[in-house]
Structure formats: structure tokens, C-alpha cells
């Protein structure tokens, strides 16, 4: 029996946001909810804040001498003093700016170059793509650290920005190679072909169709470059290439090593700077692990080794290159 038309009520379609619900919004920020990622971001943000306000909150001038020679940590000098009476806590606080400046600047420069060269060469292909790929191969074999030592010795007044730019210009090739390989696998996907068939421009396809799918790879490349830049800056200061007028953690270790701090039992001279390096490296590693877990579904499982099959029985996951189900032992 047909119902009269008056019994039907017009119902307006629900908006996509209402249909998706809060789950869709949560998925956008799932990357930031992981414990490793959140911990890494908090520690990294702490060092960034210290780098910004460090010279203002340092209790002493890091280069100022005093009569408190080689004293252990105390209420006056939290991290102790050097053989010249310099406050090590102030040196660590002030030196954070140089380390973070070099690391983040080099990471930004290298990431921009890697994205421009890698994605462009992977999408364009042909002679242009091969030429950009050859350029990446050339920069792969350039020794970054010796080049920095030579230029830093020739231009001692260049400062942290010169070191950061050199590291950035010599560290983008690996990221470009990875991005090129990923772009080659994405450029023939259905959604890219549909965008190309609809008449979208090349740069619009790259920026709105391909780059969003490379976000995790780009972030991982950035974190890796920051780690390399930080360690390179500290290494240069430790071997005595950087200017001693600018404090960083490597400079503290250089003076501690040159004055035989370990032999004198002055553990407070090198332990704080070493711990700062270790904590920053751990934070960047946790951030990188969080990115890997966000990208890889296998890592997102959280290490679970048990699951239920279609029959409702608990089974044990045997994880190898290909995860398979194994029988649960009685």
C-alpha cells in the first residue's frame, strides 16, 4: 500500500562533519597523541624555549672568571665551576642557543632542498628528472664534515649561520633520493591520474595530491638532518674548529678535555653537557620513532602479539617480514 506524500517529511542531509563525527577530527591529530611523539615534542620545545631565553635567565656571564676555582655543584653554582671559576650552568644554558640554531636551520635548509629536488625529479621524469637525480648523486659523495672544517677555518667569523648553511647544503641528497623514490610510486596512482585528466596543473598536483602523502617522510628526513647537524656542530666545537667566543655544548666538552677534567675528578665539568646532548638526541629519536609508527600500520599495533581470528579464538601473531597467525599454545 502506498503512503500519501504528506506522510513524508523532508529531511536535510547531514553535513560531512556531522557524519564523520569527532573521530575524523581525532584522526587528524593522531600523530600528536602517541607517547613517543608527545614526549619528543615536549623535550624539544623545552630546549627551544631555553635557546630563546637562555642568555636572559643565565645567573652568570658564561665567560666571567671568579675565585671559585673548580668547585663541585652547590647552591651558588648548580653545575659547578671550571678551572677559571666560570659557571658551568650558565655555559650550558647559553650554549643551547647555538646548538638549536644550527640544528633547526640546517634541518630547514636541507628539507626544503630535498623536497624541491626529490619530488620534482620523481614527478617530472625524463631528462629533467634524470638531471636532478644526477645532481643528488653528486651531493651524496661530498664530505660534509671536512668541508665544514675547511670553510670554518678559512672564515672563522662566519659563525653558526655559516655552519648551518653548509650542513644544510650538503645534507639534503639522502632525503631527496627517498622522496624521489616515493614520488615515482605515487605519480601513477589513480587519484593523481584523475587530477591530471581533469586538467590540473603540474604544480597543483605536486602540492595538493603528492606532497600530503609524503608528510611523514619529509618530517622524518627533517628530524634526521637536525640530529646530524647538532652532532656536527658539537663535533666541530670539540675538535676546536668553532669560535671559542660563542658557547655551545661542544665548547664545554673541549675545555673539559683540554684541561684534563676527568683526571682531576671534575665530573661536573663534562657530565651536564653530555646529558644535555643525550637528552636532546633521545627526544629527536623518539620523535622519529613516532613518525615511523604513524606511517607503518605494523608499528601502530603497539607490539601486540595476540589477536582473535574469525572463529573468535585467541591466536598468537608471528611477526616477521610478513605477519601470520599461529596457533595459541595450550
From TrEMBL:
SUPFAM superfamilies: MetI-like (SSF161098). Residues 100-288 form the ABC transmembrane type-1 domain. Its main location: membrane. It is a multi-pass membrane protein. One of its GO terms (molecular function) is dipeptide transmembrane transporter activity. Belongs to the binding-protein-dependent transport system permease family. This is Peptide/nickel transport system permease protein. The lineage of its organism: Bacteria, Bacillati, Actinomycetota, Actinomycetes, Pseudonocardiales.
Amino acid at each position: 500500500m502506498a503512503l500519501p506524500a504528506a506522510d513524508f517529511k523532508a529531511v536535510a542531509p547531514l553535513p560531512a562533519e556531522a557524519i564523520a563525527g569527532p573521530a575524523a577530527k581525532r584522526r587528524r591529530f593522531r600523530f600528536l597523541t602517541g607517547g613517543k611523539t608527545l614526549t619528543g615534542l615536549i623535550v624539544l620545545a623545552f630546549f627551544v624555549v631555553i635557546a630563546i631565553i637562555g642568555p636572559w635567565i643565565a645567573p652568570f656571564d658564561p665567560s666571567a672568571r671568579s675565585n671559585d676555582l673548580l668547585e663541585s655543584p652547590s647552591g651558588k653554582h648548580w653545575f659547578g665551576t671550571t678551572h677559571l671559576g666560570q659557571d658551568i650552568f650558565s655555559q650550558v644554558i647559553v650554549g643551547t642557543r647555538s646548538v638549536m640554531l644550527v640544528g633547526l636551520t640546517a634541518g630547514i635548509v636541507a628539507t626544503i632542498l630535498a623536497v624541491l629536488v626529490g619530488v620534482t625529479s620523481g614527478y617530472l621524469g625524463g631528462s629533467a628528472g634524470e638531471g636532478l637525480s644526477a645532481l643528488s648523486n653528486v651531493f651524496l659523495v661530498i664530505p660534509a664534515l671536512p668541508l665544514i672544517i675547511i670553510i670554518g677555518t678559512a672564515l672563522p667569523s662566519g659563525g653558526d649561520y655559516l655552519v648551518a648553511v653548509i650542513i644544510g647544503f650538503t645534507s639534503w641528497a639522502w632525503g631527496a633520493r627517498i622522496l624521489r623514490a616515493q614520488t615515482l610510486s605515487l605519480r601513477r596512482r589513480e587519484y593523481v591520474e584523475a587530477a591530471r585528466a581533469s586538467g590540473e596543473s603540474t604544480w597543483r598536483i605536486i602540492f595538493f595530491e603528492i606532497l600530503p602523502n609524503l608528510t611523514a617522510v619529509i618530517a622524518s628526513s627533517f628530524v634526521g638532518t637536525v640530529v646530524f647537524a647538532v652532532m656536527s656542530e658539537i663535533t666541530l666545537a670539540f675538535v676546536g674548529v668553532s669560535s671559542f667566543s660563542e658557547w655551545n655544548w661542544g665548547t664545554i666538552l673541549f675545555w673539559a678535555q683540554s684541561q684534563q677534567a676527568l683526571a682531576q675528578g671534575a665530573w661536573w665539568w663534562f657530565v651536564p653537557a653530555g646529558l644535555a646532548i643525550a637528552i636532546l638526541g633521545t627526544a629527536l629519536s623518539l620523535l622519529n620513532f613516532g613518525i615511523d609508527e604513524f606511517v607503518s600500520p605494523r608499528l601502530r599495533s603497539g607490539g601486540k602479539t595476540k589477536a582473535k581470528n574469525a572463529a573468535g579464538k585467541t591466536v598468537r601473531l608471528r611477526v616477521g617480514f610478513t605477519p601470520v597467525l599461529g596457533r595459541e599454545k595450550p
